[in-house]
Amino acid sequence: MNDNIPQTIAIIMDGNGRWAKQRGLPRTAGHKLGADTIRTVALAANELGVKKLILYAFSTENWKRPEDEVGYLCKLPGLFFNKYIRELMEKNIRVTFAGELERFPSDTQKVINRAVNDTSHNTGLELCLAINYGSRREILLGIQKYADEVKNGRKNDLTEEDFSQYLFVPEDIDLMIRTSGEVRISNFLLWQLAYSELIFTPVAWPDFNKEELVKCIEEFKHRDRRFGGLTK
Ligand code: FPP
């Protein structure tokens, strides 16, 4: 299974709300289960030899949701790390984040920073949570930083590889999965998805699991990635 495994996988974890509604539950129940799915999928990706898993947990647009839902989403990292940080440590998983953490309540910032620090020496899977993340904003911030450097005397000689280093997520994505049937990118990793293989599965995020991940990876392995060139 280890050959031709995508090194970087990004997932838009969609469908928590619909999953809950179909069962007569509040939307937050879907998010709660969705957080447990993060654990399942991170452990599976780690076992399979994936290097980096980037999960879209909170977009810059999600602030528009009702206050109680936003409040619950802000609490979830705390609940998640209380429950699972020990296991993530045991499995050698390193937690990172992408996005502007500053807008979250200070408790949320603290638990995330603590998880990042506690796991910083781990060498297995990098589990990157995209929170208060928006790709256009990420690109804009990168451009501003670069422009400042040029203003301060840096030579204006930017390459594509250099520019990646100005982003929250510098890696190209091999495989992008979106759950729950919607077929769009929703301001996620616009630069990094340039040559990704895309998989849209009807499975809702709370029902996604190791078996579904393996299915996606198997499909990825059969794709003919040409990066704009021709097949050999
Ligand atoms: C999209 O489903 C999902 C989200 C906006 C939130 C995703 C968050 C988690 C899975 C948990 C985060 C946990 C941690 C630890 C960071 P939706 O609500 O848009 O679903 P719908 O399209 O069915 O309404």
Describe this structure in words.
The protein has 232 residues and is an alpha/beta fold. It is built from 7 helices and 6 strands, in the order E-H-H-E-H-E-H-E-H-H-E-E-H. The chain has helices at 16-22, 27-48, 67-90, 106-118, 135-151, 160-164, 210-222, and strands at residues 8-12, 52-59, 94-98, 126-133, 175-178, 197-200. Helix 1 crosses helix 2. The model has no long low-confidence stretch (mean pLDDT 96). The protein binds farnesyl diphosphate (FPP).
Write the layout of secondary structure elements.
Blueprint: E1 8-12, H1 16-22, H2 27-48, E2 52-59, H3 67-90, E3 94-98, H4 106-118, E4 126-133, H5 135-151, H6 160-164, E5 175-178, E6 197-200, H7 210-222
Parallel strand pairs: 1-2, 1-5, 2-4, 3-4, 5-6
